[in-house]
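Notes from hallway chat w/ T.B., transcribed later so I don't forget. T.B. wanted the structure written out for a chain they're using in a teaching module, and asked if we could keep both sequence and structure tokens in one place. Agreed to drop them here.
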Amino acid sequence: MRVVLTGGAGFIGTHVLRTLRQRNHEVVVLDSLRADVHRGAAPAIDGLVVGDVRDPSVLDRVLPGTDVVCHLAAKVGLGVDVSDLPDYADSNVHGTAALLAGMVRAGVSRFVQASSMVVYGEGLGHCPRHGAVTPGPRAEASLRAGQFEPPCPVCGEALAAALVAEDGGLDPRNAYAASKVGQEQFAGSWARATGGSAASLRYHNVYGPGLPADTPYAGVAAIFLSALRRGEAPRVFEDGGQRRDFVHVADIATATADAVEKHTAGVRAFNVGSGIPRTVGEMATALAGATGGPAPIVTGDYRLGDVRHITADSSLIRSELGWRPTVEFEAGMTELAGFGVTVS
């Protein structure tokens, strides 16, 4: 198949590109090489078209004859203040809308895009009295007092963390999350209007070789590893008990390629995670052990807007597309410690 891969010069994109080409697909990479992500010389990628998905002239040049568009281009990170909102809306929501309109002009009917587990907010919690509930935002007074677990919004009792499925309610709590919901909704609207197919892959916390250290794409693994490379202890926020699902970028790439090949009808969202929740503290400890560095320091610090736990049920993509993660957490952490992180 001929695949146009947007954002294919980025961290996840380069792994998806490699996987698609290993499966003998013809891939055209479209990437704007954003200055806040790519620094220095342009990457040497065969078939790279430098351009923006918001530019109709670029789309009308690259999209004709395409079987599937795989859309990874986006502004990421949580956003730091209200002034970030226009860029998230323009880059992610407008960018996706412009791309979908270009696909209509070119007659392309299949679309796969990167979404994120952040669309769920705090996801689900289980209250012993009220069952499955959606936790509300955590109050700053509680965080200052070291009360990090979100309470039941009905009775205030402590909640047990629970997995959220794709039909769980969406509750975006920052600019990036809201833009991802917008991308999904535009894709669904396009698919229903045109009879096309749209798959939104809600990636969990992605790590692996090439993880950038100094851009908005840097996640908690990159932050911890950069500290360890400086001989410093990783500083873990809250009490380190935040639950996440850390999934290796190689597994993300195969999940994305599977969706490109196999999702051919309708509108679907797929959670993509390892299926084994870990705490942020466990990741810091694993990286410290793999590098021989100092043990993590639990600081009790916090950031407003961070969610406490978000782990989703990834069984749907396993049953519908036959995808399985293959990289074990311990092996992945050891590999990441050996490769380090990339400074652009």
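Follow-up for T.B.: The longest strand covers residues 110-116. Might be a good example for the class.
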